[in-house]
Structure prediction request, 195 residues.
Amino acid sequence: MSELIGTPLYLIYAAVVCTLLSGAVSLFAVRRHPGFLHFGSFLFLFCSGAASIAAGGWTLLAKLTVTDQFALGLPWLAWHLRIDPLSGFFLVLLGTLVVAISLYGPSYTREFGRGAAAQPLPPLGVFTALFVLGMQGMLLADDALVFMIFWEMMSLCGYFLLPVRSSALASRRTWCRCTSGCRTRTRWHRRTSRH
Prediction:
Protein backbone atom coordinates (compact mmCIF):
# COMPACT_ATOMS: atom_id res chain seq x y z
CA MET A 1 0.00 0.00 0.00
CA SER A 2 1.44 3.33 -1.04
CA GLU A 3 1.95 5.95 1.68
CA LEU A 4 -0.26 8.42 -0.16
CA ILE A 5 -3.08 5.93 -0.63
CA GLY A 6 -2.90 4.70 2.98
CA THR A 7 -2.96 8.19 4.51
CA PRO A 8 -6.77 8.34 5.01
CA LEU A 9 -6.60 5.07 6.90
CA TYR A 10 -3.82 6.43 9.12
CA LEU A 11 -5.89 9.58 9.72
CA ILE A 12 -8.88 7.56 10.83
CA TYR A 13 -6.64 5.48 13.09
CA ALA A 14 -5.47 8.77 14.61
CA ALA A 15 -9.13 9.73 15.07
CA VAL A 16 -9.82 6.45 16.86
CA VAL A 17 -6.80 6.95 19.14
CA CYS A 18 -7.96 10.50 19.97
CA THR A 19 -11.42 9.15 20.79
CA LEU A 20 -9.91 6.57 23.14
CA LEU A 21 -7.75 9.26 24.76
CA SER A 22 -10.86 11.39 25.25
CA GLY A 23 -12.46 8.59 27.24
CA ALA A 24 -9.28 7.94 29.23
CA VAL A 25 -8.82 11.61 30.15
CA SER A 26 -12.44 11.91 31.26
CA LEU A 27 -11.84 9.20 33.88
CA PHE A 28 -9.92 11.82 35.85
CA ALA A 29 -12.80 14.32 35.76
CA VAL A 30 -13.81 13.86 39.37
CA ARG A 31 -15.63 16.54 41.33
CA ARG A 32 -12.44 18.38 42.25
CA HIS A 33 -11.03 18.36 38.71
CA PRO A 34 -13.88 18.86 36.22
CA GLY A 35 -11.47 20.54 33.81
CA PHE A 36 -10.31 17.13 32.64
CA LEU A 37 -13.71 16.66 31.02
CA HIS A 38 -14.42 20.30 30.15
CA PHE A 39 -11.15 20.84 28.33
CA GLY A 40 -9.02 17.68 28.06
CA SER A 41 -11.65 15.21 26.94
CA PHE A 42 -13.35 17.59 24.55
CA LEU A 43 -9.98 18.66 23.11
CA PHE A 44 -9.30 15.04 22.13
CA LEU A 45 -12.83 14.77 20.74
CA PHE A 46 -12.14 17.86 18.63
CA CYS A 47 -8.94 16.26 17.28
CA SER A 48 -10.87 13.06 16.58
CA GLY A 49 -13.54 14.94 14.66
CA ALA A 50 -10.98 16.91 12.68
CA ALA A 51 -9.09 13.73 11.76
CA SER A 52 -12.37 12.07 10.73
CA ILE A 53 -13.20 15.01 8.49
CA ALA A 54 -9.71 14.92 6.95
CA ALA A 55 -9.80 11.15 6.38
CA GLY A 56 -13.32 11.17 5.00
CA GLY A 57 -12.72 14.20 2.79
CA TRP A 58 -9.49 12.76 1.41
CA THR A 59 -11.16 9.44 0.61
CA LEU A 60 -14.20 11.11 -0.89
CA LEU A 61 -12.31 13.57 -3.10
CA ALA A 62 -9.63 11.09 -4.24
CA LYS A 63 -12.22 8.29 -4.69
CA LEU A 64 -9.97 5.87 -2.81
CA THR A 65 -10.77 2.47 -1.40
CA VAL A 66 -8.31 1.30 1.24
CA THR A 67 -8.59 -1.92 3.23
CA ASP A 68 -6.76 -3.28 6.24
CA GLN A 69 -7.11 -6.15 8.67
CA PHE A 70 -6.20 -6.82 12.28
CA ALA A 71 -5.65 -10.17 13.95
CA LEU A 72 -8.10 -9.42 16.78
CA GLY A 73 -10.75 -11.63 18.28
CA LEU A 74 -10.92 -15.23 17.12
CA PRO A 75 -7.63 -16.71 15.88
CA TRP A 76 -9.01 -17.72 12.48
CA LEU A 77 -11.12 -14.62 11.92
CA ALA A 78 -9.33 -11.29 11.40
CA TRP A 79 -11.11 -7.95 11.63
CA HIS A 80 -11.48 -6.44 8.16
CA LEU A 81 -11.61 -2.65 7.86
CA ARG A 82 -12.30 -0.57 4.78
CA ILE A 83 -12.60 3.09 3.94
CA ASP A 84 -14.20 4.03 0.64
CA PRO A 85 -15.98 7.12 -0.74
CA LEU A 86 -19.31 6.20 0.90
CA SER A 87 -17.78 5.69 4.33
CA GLY A 88 -15.70 8.82 3.67
CA PHE A 89 -18.89 10.84 3.20
CA PHE A 90 -20.32 9.58 6.47
CA LEU A 91 -16.99 10.14 8.23
CA VAL A 92 -17.17 13.80 7.15
CA LEU A 93 -20.69 14.03 8.61
CA LEU A 94 -19.67 12.27 11.82
CA GLY A 95 -16.53 14.38 12.15
CA THR A 96 -18.54 17.57 11.71
CA LEU A 97 -20.93 16.53 14.47
CA VAL A 98 -18.08 15.50 16.79
CA VAL A 99 -16.33 18.85 16.24
CA ALA A 100 -19.59 20.68 17.01
CA ILE A 101 -20.10 18.57 20.16
CA SER A 102 -16.54 19.22 21.28
CA LEU A 103 -17.04 22.97 20.94
CA TYR A 104 -20.41 23.01 22.69
CA GLY A 105 -19.63 20.30 25.27
CA PRO A 106 -17.57 22.27 27.80
CA SER A 107 -20.30 24.84 28.40
CA TYR A 108 -22.98 22.13 28.46
CA THR A 109 -21.22 19.93 31.01
CA ARG A 110 -20.37 22.75 33.44
CA GLU A 111 -23.85 22.56 34.93
CA PHE A 112 -23.33 18.90 35.83
CA GLY A 113 -20.52 19.62 38.28
CA ARG A 114 -22.21 22.48 40.13
CA GLY A 115 -24.52 22.64 43.09
CA ALA A 116 -25.71 20.12 45.61
CA ALA A 117 -27.12 17.83 42.92
CA ALA A 118 -23.80 17.56 41.06
CA GLN A 119 -23.55 14.59 38.71
CA PRO A 120 -20.47 12.41 38.22
CA LEU A 121 -18.61 13.48 35.09
CA PRO A 122 -16.49 10.39 34.25
CA PRO A 123 -19.42 8.25 33.00
CA LEU A 124 -20.51 11.02 30.65
CA GLY A 125 -17.05 11.34 29.12
CA VAL A 126 -16.34 7.61 28.90
CA PHE A 127 -19.68 6.67 27.36
CA THR A 128 -19.55 9.60 24.94
CA ALA A 129 -16.10 8.54 23.75
CA LEU A 130 -17.18 4.91 23.38
CA PHE A 131 -20.33 6.01 21.53
CA VAL A 132 -18.23 7.98 19.04
CA LEU A 133 -15.77 5.08 18.77
CA GLY A 134 -18.68 2.75 17.96
CA MET A 135 -19.85 5.04 15.17
CA GLN A 136 -16.35 5.35 13.74
CA GLY A 137 -15.89 1.59 13.86
CA MET A 138 -19.21 0.95 12.13
CA LEU A 139 -18.15 3.19 9.27
CA LEU A 140 -14.87 1.28 8.92
CA ALA A 141 -16.31 -2.23 9.23
CA ASP A 142 -15.83 -4.47 6.20
CA ASP A 143 -17.36 -7.63 7.62
CA ALA A 144 -20.41 -8.52 9.68
CA LEU A 145 -18.50 -9.37 12.86
CA VAL A 146 -16.75 -6.00 13.11
CA PHE A 147 -19.96 -4.17 12.22
CA MET A 148 -21.90 -6.06 14.90
CA ILE A 149 -19.25 -5.42 17.57
CA PHE A 150 -19.20 -1.67 16.95
CA TRP A 151 -22.99 -1.51 16.52
CA GLU A 152 -23.46 -3.10 19.93
CA MET A 153 -20.83 -0.81 21.45
CA MET A 154 -22.64 2.23 20.08
CA SER A 155 -26.09 1.08 21.15
CA LEU A 156 -25.02 0.05 24.67
CA CYS A 157 -23.22 3.34 25.23
CA GLY A 158 -26.27 5.23 24.00
CA TYR A 159 -28.33 3.20 26.44
CA PHE A 160 -26.05 4.17 29.34
CA LEU A 161 -25.88 7.82 28.28
CA LEU A 162 -29.65 8.22 28.80
CA PRO A 163 -29.65 8.18 32.63
CA VAL A 164 -26.52 10.38 32.97
CA ARG A 165 -28.71 13.42 33.27
CA SER A 166 -31.02 11.85 35.82
CA SER A 167 -32.42 15.19 36.95
CA ALA A 168 -34.33 15.39 33.70
CA LEU A 169 -37.61 13.56 34.19
CA ALA A 170 -37.94 12.63 30.52
CA SER A 171 -34.52 10.95 30.53
CA ARG A 172 -35.44 8.89 33.55
CA ARG A 173 -38.75 7.84 31.98
CA THR A 174 -37.05 6.87 28.73
CA TRP A 175 -34.42 4.88 30.60
CA CYS A 176 -37.11 3.10 32.62
CA ARG A 177 -39.00 2.25 29.44
CA CYS A 178 -35.85 0.82 27.88
CA THR A 179 -35.03 -1.34 30.89
CA SER A 180 -38.61 -2.54 31.33
CA GLY A 181 -38.80 -3.29 27.62
CA CYS A 182 -35.68 -5.45 27.87
CA ARG A 183 -37.11 -7.31 30.85
CA THR A 184 -40.45 -7.83 29.08
CA ARG A 185 -38.76 -9.20 25.95
CA THR A 186 -36.62 -11.53 28.07
CA ARG A 187 -39.67 -12.87 29.93
CA TRP A 188 -41.60 -13.31 26.68
CA HIS A 189 -38.65 -15.12 25.08
CA ARG A 190 -38.34 -17.47 28.06
CA ARG A 191 -42.07 -18.23 27.94
CA THR A 192 -42.17 -18.90 24.21
CA SER A 193 -38.96 -20.95 24.14
CA ARG A 194 -40.41 -23.51 26.59
CA HIS A 195 -43.16 -24.52 24.17
